[in-house]
Amino acid sequence: MIPTPHNGAKSGDIAKTVLMPGDPLRAKFIAETYLEDVVCFNTVRNMLGFTGTYKGKRVSVMGGGMGMPSIGIYSYELYHFYDVDNIIRIGSAGGIADDIKLRDIVIGMGASTNSNFAAQYQLPGTFAPIADFGLLRKAVETAEKKNIKTVVGNILSSDTFYDDNSNANSLWRKMNILAVEMEAAALYMNAARAGKKALCILTISDHVFTGESLSAEDRQLTFRDMMEIALEIA
Ligand SMILES: O=P(O)(O)O[C@H]1O[C@H](CO)[C@@H](O)[C@H]1O
Ligand SMILES: O=c1cc[nH]c(=O)[nH]1
Protein backbone atom coordinates (compact mmCIF):
# COMPACT_ATOMS: atom_id res chain seq x y z
CA MET A 1 0.00 0.00 0.00
CA ILE A 2 2.58 2.61 -1.04
CA PRO A 3 2.59 5.50 -1.50
CA THR A 4 0.17 5.84 1.43
CA PRO A 5 -2.38 8.63 1.95
CA HIS A 6 0.21 10.33 4.20
CA ASN A 7 3.58 9.43 2.72
CA GLY A 8 4.61 9.90 -0.91
CA ALA A 9 7.76 7.75 -0.64
CA LYS A 10 8.22 4.86 -3.04
CA SER A 11 9.61 1.44 -2.18
CA GLY A 12 13.27 1.72 -1.17
CA ASP A 13 13.19 5.49 -0.59
CA ILE A 14 13.37 5.16 3.20
CA ALA A 15 16.29 3.76 5.23
CA LYS A 16 15.92 0.99 7.82
CA THR A 17 16.31 3.54 10.61
CA VAL A 18 14.23 6.72 10.81
CA LEU A 19 14.83 9.59 13.22
CA MET A 20 11.50 11.18 14.03
CA PRO A 21 11.19 14.64 15.60
CA GLY A 22 7.66 16.00 16.02
CA ASP A 23 8.41 19.07 13.95
CA PRO A 24 9.01 18.50 10.22
CA LEU A 25 11.23 21.60 10.14
CA ARG A 26 13.46 19.93 12.72
CA ALA A 27 13.67 17.00 10.31
CA LYS A 28 14.75 19.42 7.57
CA PHE A 29 17.33 20.98 9.90
CA ILE A 30 18.83 17.56 10.67
CA ALA A 31 18.94 16.61 6.99
CA GLU A 32 20.58 19.90 6.02
CA THR A 33 23.00 19.96 8.94
CA TYR A 34 24.14 16.37 9.23
CA LEU A 35 23.29 14.29 6.15
CA GLU A 36 25.01 13.96 2.79
CA ASP A 37 23.43 13.09 -0.56
CA VAL A 38 20.03 14.04 0.80
CA VAL A 39 16.79 13.24 -1.04
CA CYS A 40 13.40 14.50 0.16
CA PHE A 41 10.94 11.59 0.00
CA ASN A 42 7.82 13.17 1.44
CA THR A 43 6.05 16.50 1.27
CA VAL A 44 2.46 15.29 1.84
CA ARG A 45 0.88 17.63 4.44
CA ASN A 46 4.35 19.20 4.74
CA MET A 47 5.38 16.26 6.93
CA LEU A 48 8.85 16.42 5.44
CA GLY A 49 10.93 13.26 5.17
CA PHE A 50 14.53 12.94 3.95
CA THR A 51 17.01 10.13 3.33
CA GLY A 52 20.76 10.63 3.20
CA THR A 53 23.96 9.30 4.70
CA TYR A 54 25.57 10.02 8.05
CA LYS A 55 29.21 8.93 8.31
CA GLY A 56 28.54 6.60 5.40
CA LYS A 57 25.38 5.03 6.92
CA ARG A 58 22.03 5.42 5.18
CA VAL A 59 19.52 7.05 7.49
CA SER A 60 16.15 8.80 7.16
CA VAL A 61 14.60 11.59 9.16
CA MET A 62 10.92 12.50 9.07
CA GLY A 63 8.53 14.60 11.12
CA GLY A 64 5.93 12.70 13.12
CA GLY A 65 3.61 15.54 14.12
CA MET A 66 2.15 16.21 17.54
CA GLY A 67 0.25 13.64 19.53
CA MET A 68 -0.30 9.91 19.45
CA PRO A 69 -2.78 9.76 16.55
CA SER A 70 -0.21 11.52 14.37
CA ILE A 71 2.88 9.50 15.26
CA GLY A 72 0.61 6.45 15.28
CA ILE A 73 -0.11 6.89 11.57
CA TYR A 74 3.42 7.72 10.44
CA SER A 75 5.18 5.03 12.47
CA TYR A 76 2.60 2.37 11.49
CA GLU A 77 3.16 3.10 7.82
CA LEU A 78 6.95 3.13 8.18
CA TYR A 79 7.01 -0.22 9.99
CA HIS A 80 4.37 -2.03 7.95
CA PHE A 81 4.59 -0.54 4.43
CA TYR A 82 8.16 0.79 4.15
CA ASP A 83 10.02 -2.04 5.89
CA VAL A 84 11.56 0.29 8.46
CA ASP A 85 13.13 -1.57 11.42
CA ASN A 86 13.98 1.22 13.88
CA ILE A 87 12.30 4.51 14.71
CA ILE A 88 14.06 6.87 17.09
CA ARG A 89 11.87 9.71 18.28
CA ILE A 90 13.79 12.87 19.20
CA GLY A 91 11.57 15.39 20.91
CA SER A 92 11.16 18.14 23.44
CA ALA A 93 9.58 17.48 26.82
CA GLY A 94 8.48 19.19 30.00
CA GLY A 95 10.37 18.21 33.15
CA ILE A 96 8.25 16.67 35.90
CA ALA A 97 10.63 15.07 38.44
CA ASP A 98 12.29 17.54 40.84
CA ASP A 99 15.81 16.60 39.81
CA ILE A 100 15.14 17.03 36.06
CA LYS A 101 16.58 20.30 34.80
CA LEU A 102 16.33 22.34 31.60
CA ARG A 103 18.56 20.90 28.82
CA ASP A 104 18.70 17.44 30.43
CA ILE A 105 18.47 14.56 27.99
CA VAL A 106 15.88 12.05 29.12
CA ILE A 107 15.56 8.62 27.52
CA GLY A 108 12.18 6.94 27.84
CA MET A 109 12.81 3.40 29.06
CA GLY A 110 9.05 3.18 29.56
CA ALA A 111 6.23 5.44 28.43
CA SER A 112 3.23 5.66 30.74
CA THR A 113 0.20 7.24 29.17
CA ASN A 114 -3.27 8.67 29.69
CA SER A 115 -4.13 7.68 26.11
CA ASN A 116 -6.52 4.97 25.02
CA PHE A 117 -4.22 3.84 22.18
CA ALA A 118 -3.81 0.34 23.66
CA ALA A 119 -7.58 -0.32 23.60
CA GLN A 120 -7.30 -1.48 19.97
CA TYR A 121 -5.30 -4.54 21.09
CA GLN A 122 -8.14 -5.76 23.37
CA LEU A 123 -5.67 -7.06 25.95
CA PRO A 124 -6.95 -8.65 29.15
CA GLY A 125 -4.85 -6.21 31.22
CA THR A 126 -2.64 -3.12 31.02
CA PHE A 127 0.19 -2.99 28.47
CA ALA A 128 3.52 -1.40 29.52
CA PRO A 129 5.03 0.41 26.49
CA ILE A 130 8.83 0.11 26.62
CA ALA A 131 11.84 1.05 24.51
CA ASP A 132 13.95 -1.46 22.65
CA PHE A 133 16.73 -2.41 25.06
CA GLY A 134 19.43 -2.61 22.36
CA LEU A 135 18.72 0.90 21.10
CA LEU A 136 18.46 2.19 24.66
CA ARG A 137 21.81 0.68 25.64
CA LYS A 138 23.50 2.06 22.52
CA ALA A 139 22.09 5.53 23.19
CA VAL A 140 23.37 5.53 26.76
CA GLU A 141 26.81 4.23 25.73
CA THR A 142 27.06 6.79 22.91
CA ALA A 143 26.12 9.62 25.26
CA GLU A 144 28.73 8.44 27.79
CA LYS A 145 31.42 8.43 25.09
CA LYS A 146 30.44 11.98 24.14
CA ASN A 147 30.45 13.03 27.80
CA ILE A 148 26.74 13.88 27.62
CA LYS A 149 24.67 13.14 30.70
CA THR A 150 21.41 11.25 30.18
CA VAL A 151 18.63 10.32 32.59
CA VAL A 152 16.86 7.05 31.81
CA GLY A 153 13.45 6.13 33.17
CA ASN A 154 9.71 6.36 32.84
CA ILE A 155 8.15 9.23 30.89
CA LEU A 156 4.54 10.28 30.36
CA SER A 157 2.98 10.41 26.91
CA SER A 158 -0.01 12.69 27.34
CA ASP A 159 -2.98 13.30 25.07
CA THR A 160 -3.17 16.85 26.38
CA PHE A 161 -0.71 19.72 26.30
CA TYR A 162 -3.24 22.00 28.02
CA ASP A 163 -4.94 19.93 30.71
CA ASP A 164 -7.94 21.01 32.74
CA ASN A 165 -6.78 18.91 35.68
CA SER A 166 -4.04 21.00 37.29
CA ASN A 167 -3.20 18.15 39.69
CA ALA A 168 -2.48 15.53 37.02
CA ASN A 169 1.26 16.13 36.74
CA SER A 170 1.69 16.06 40.54
CA LEU A 171 0.12 12.61 40.56
CA TRP A 172 2.49 11.38 37.84
CA ARG A 173 5.42 12.91 39.73
CA LYS A 174 4.58 10.71 42.73
CA MET A 175 5.16 7.71 40.43
CA ASN A 176 8.66 8.95 39.53
CA ILE A 177 7.74 10.05 36.02
CA LEU A 178 10.66 12.09 34.71
CA ALA A 179 9.09 14.19 31.96
CA VAL A 180 5.99 14.67 29.82
CA GLU A 181 5.73 14.54 26.03
CA MET A 182 2.98 13.40 23.68
CA GLU A 183 4.02 10.50 21.41
CA ALA A 184 6.37 7.83 22.80
CA ALA A 185 3.73 5.43 24.14
CA ALA A 186 2.03 5.07 20.75
CA LEU A 187 5.37 4.64 19.02
CA TYR A 188 6.41 1.92 21.49
CA MET A 189 3.08 0.14 21.03
CA ASN A 190 3.28 0.24 17.25
CA ALA A 191 6.83 -1.12 17.44
CA ALA A 192 5.79 -3.94 19.78
CA ARG A 193 2.84 -4.95 17.60
CA ALA A 194 4.95 -4.83 14.43
CA GLY A 195 7.88 -6.75 16.00
CA LYS A 196 10.13 -3.74 15.34
CA LYS A 197 12.28 -1.41 17.46
CA ALA A 198 11.74 2.06 18.89
CA LEU A 199 13.38 4.52 21.24
CA CYS A 200 12.43 7.98 22.47
CA ILE A 201 15.14 10.52 23.34
CA LEU A 202 13.99 13.87 24.75
CA THR A 203 15.51 17.21 25.63
CA ILE A 204 13.89 19.12 28.47
CA SER A 205 12.67 22.40 27.00
CA ASP A 206 10.67 23.58 30.01
CA HIS A 207 9.78 22.50 33.52
CA VAL A 208 6.17 21.85 34.40
CA PHE A 209 6.52 22.90 38.04
CA THR A 210 9.15 25.65 37.99
CA GLY A 211 7.83 27.28 34.80
CA GLU A 212 11.38 27.74 33.43
CA SER A 213 11.79 27.33 29.67
CA LEU A 214 14.57 27.42 27.08
CA SER A 215 14.95 30.23 24.58
CA ALA A 216 14.70 29.35 20.89
CA GLU A 217 18.49 29.72 20.53
CA ASP A 218 19.15 27.48 23.51
CA ARG A 219 16.81 24.83 22.09
CA GLN A 220 18.70 24.76 18.82
CA LEU A 221 21.99 24.30 20.64
CA THR A 222 20.96 21.69 23.20
CA PHE A 223 18.79 19.69 20.78
CA ARG A 224 21.94 19.04 18.77
CA ASP A 225 23.33 16.72 21.49
CA MET A 226 20.18 14.60 21.26
CA MET A 227 20.26 14.61 17.45
CA GLU A 228 23.89 13.50 17.41
CA ILE A 229 23.24 10.64 19.85
CA ALA A 230 20.37 9.45 17.63
CA LEU A 231 22.45 9.75 14.45
CA GLU A 232 25.34 7.79 15.99
CA ILE A 233 23.11 4.85 16.94
CA ALA A 234 21.12 4.86 13.67
O1 LIG B 1 9.19 18.59 20.18
P1 LIG B 1 8.24 17.50 19.78
O2 LIG B 1 8.94 16.34 19.19
O3 LIG B 1 7.11 17.98 18.90
O4 LIG B 1 7.58 16.98 21.15
C1 LIG B 1 6.82 17.72 22.08
O5 LIG B 1 6.41 19.01 21.63
C2 LIG B 1 5.02 19.00 21.25
C3 LIG B 1 4.24 19.91 22.16
O6 LIG B 1 4.74 21.19 22.14
C4 LIG B 1 4.56 17.57 21.37
O7 LIG B 1 4.69 16.93 20.12
C5 LIG B 1 5.51 17.02 22.40
O8 LIG B 1 5.66 15.63 22.42
O1 LIG C 1 4.58 17.77 25.55
C1 LIG C 1 5.27 18.64 26.05
C2 LIG C 1 6.46 19.12 25.47
C3 LIG C 1 7.19 20.10 26.09
N1 LIG C 1 6.75 20.58 27.27
C4 LIG C 1 5.61 20.12 27.84
O2 LIG C 1 5.23 20.58 28.92
N2 LIG C 1 4.89 19.17 27.22
Automatic annotation (TrEMBL):
InterPro entries per the UniProt record, alphabetical: DeoD-type, Nucleoside_phosphorylase_CS, Nucleoside_phosphorylase_d, Nucleoside_phosphorylase_sf
Q: Which residues are listed for a purine D-ribonucleoside binding in this entry?
A: H6, E181, M182, E183, S205, D206
Residue ranges constituting the Nucleoside phosphorylase domain according to the UniProt record: 17-227
The record's GO molecular-function terms, alphabetically, read:
purine-nucleoside phosphorylase activity; uridine phosphorylase activity
Question: Which biological process annotations from GO are given for this protein?
Answer: purine nucleoside metabolic process; uridine catabolic process
Q: Where are the transmembrane segments?
A: none
Q: Which SUPFAM superfamilies match?
A: Purine and uridine phosphorylases
Instruction: Name the residues that bind phosphate.
Output: G22, R26, R45, R89, I90, G91, S92
What residues form the catalytic site here?
Answer: D206
How is this protein annotated for GO cellular component? Answer: cytosol
Q: Which family does it belong to?
A: Belongs to the PNP/UDP phosphorylase family.
Share what the entry says about its subunit structure, partners included.
Homohexamer; trimer of homodimers.
Query: What positions are marked as the site Important for catalytic activity?
Result: R219
Identify this protein by name: Purine nucleoside phosphorylase DeoD-type
EC number per UniProt:
2.4.2.1
- Say what the protein does: Catalyzes the reversible phosphorolytic breakdown of the N-glycosidic bond in the beta-(deoxy)ribonucleoside molecules, with the formation of the corresponding free purine bases and pentose-1-phosphate.
**Catalyses which reaction(s):** a purine 2'-deoxy-D-ribonucleoside + phosphate = a purine nucleobase + 2-deoxy-alpha-D-ribose 1-phosphate; a purine D-ribonucleoside + phosphate = a purine nucleobase + alpha-D-ribose 1-phosphate; uridine + phosphate = alpha-D-ribose 1-phosphate + uracil
Keyword tags: Glycosyltransferase, Transferase
Give the source's domain of life in one word: Bacteria
State the PROSITE patterns in the record.
PNP_UDP_1
